[in-house]
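Saturday, quiet lab. Running sequence design on the structure tokens for the scaffold JK sent over.
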């Protein structure tokens, strides 16, 4: 599996985790139990951990082994396909894991013919988590920008629409920042803001809601980095990492964009952003952002208390 830049991801391999479980479609399997063996391959990026010698920046395979064994010993299921699915989803929980290969062995399966082993092997990628609604509300950061039309009114309408989105609760709205456009053709300056929210929607559903609001404001996608009536980017969603083509998380360029970092810092001075080297303070990233000198604060333009 490759990263967004095309580099082959690193792997952490854990083979031969064996535990006794009571899985199977037959009553005696549920009653007597049998040993299951699990092999796991995590597709990840260990460069930050390797550079810092910091266990917190990689997947702890000791914890992983315990998690796998606990699932095997846990609630019985009929199919080892279901068991493999549960283990794979658990393997995706650490933030730096982008995909997991899981093989569940059932060498004592009740088969009348002579055989050596039965194995169900699955791959699950972190993108599957983009489609799953969280069990409880998670934080999400959204960046808003516009440089066409009545820019202030468009931002106000966007915030109003976000507040009205079912499953999304707006927690705070940043001050407005005016910025020069980055890349693309010659065009007017942008008004930018950041919205902090909590959501029970899946990440894909948050993106879909943002796209609907963009469309309602006349957004058309004709030219990359071209002018637009409204742009709503999902900057981060909980601690989720994703290389999905439609929704890369955290946003791949947020760490170097002052027009995102400045309003975010203004509304949450302690904010952090998950980067390729681990979490970093937004204020530190802002100090290094190449476009930071083009910022113009517009305190007279209010979004927070507008109705």
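Result came back. Writing it out in full:
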């Amino acid at each position: 599996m490759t990263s967004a830049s095309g580099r082959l991801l690193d792997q952490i391999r854990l083979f031969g985790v064996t535990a006794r479980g009571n899985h199977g479609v037959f009553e005696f399997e549920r009653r007597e139990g049998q040993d299951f063996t699990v092999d796991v391959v995590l597709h990840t990026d260990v460069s930050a951990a390797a550079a810092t010698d910091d266990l917190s920046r990689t997947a702890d395979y000791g914890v992983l082994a315990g998690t796998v064994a606990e699932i095997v010993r846990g609630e019985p299921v009929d199919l080892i396909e279901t068991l493999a699915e549960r283990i794979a989803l658990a393997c995706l929980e650490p933030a730096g894991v982008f995909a997991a290969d899981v093989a569940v062995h059932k060498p004592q399966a009740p088969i009348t013919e002579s055989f050596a082993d039965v194995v169900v092997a699955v791959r699950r990628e972190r993108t599957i988590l983009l489609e799953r609604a969280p069990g409880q509300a998670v934080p999400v950061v959204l960046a808003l920008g516009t440089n066409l039309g009545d820019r202030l009114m468009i931002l106000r309408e966007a915030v109003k629409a976000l507040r009205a989105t079912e499953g999304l609760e707006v927690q705070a709205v940043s001050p407005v920042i005016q910025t020069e456009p980055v890349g693309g053709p010659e065009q007017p300056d942008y008004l930018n803001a950041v919205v902090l929210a909590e959501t029970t929607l899946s990440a894909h559903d948050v993106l879909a809601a943002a796209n609907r609001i963009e469309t309602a404001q006349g957004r058309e996608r004709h030219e990359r980095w071209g002018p637009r009536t409204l742009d709503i980017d999902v900057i981060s969603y909980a601690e989720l990492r994703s290389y999905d083509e439609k929704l890369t998380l955290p946003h791949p360029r947020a760490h170097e964009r002052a027009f995102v970092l400045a309003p975010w810092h203004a509304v949450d001075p302690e904010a952090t952003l998950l980067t390729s080297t681990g979490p970093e303070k937004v204020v530190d990233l802002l100090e290094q952002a190449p476009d930071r000198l083009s910022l113009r604060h517009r305190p007279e333009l209010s979004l927070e208390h507008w109705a």
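Notes for JK: The mean pLDDT is 90. The CA atoms of residues 134 and 155 lie 28 Å apart. Ask whether to fix the surface positions before the next round.
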